[in-house]
């Protein structure tokens, strides 16, 4: 029996069509999930440019999503978010 590939993805703000890396991550993860991979995306907590809070979607097109809290300070947000995602159980 072939073992399912498990993949953790982090670094993006969230799965969306709003930015460069976010579009690439969404497309790759969606296609890998359709091919049987077990995908978990660790998304930064935050807000849209409009000020609205990001959706709290738990699963999207077979991709499990986890929201990681972070500090809302330019520069610190990326480093802290990535560190928390790295040590998630």
Automatic annotation (TrEMBL):
For this protein, what is any one GO molecular function term? transferase activity
Q: Write out the entry's keywords from A to Z.
A: Transferase
Q: What is this protein called?
A: Glycosyl transferase, group 1
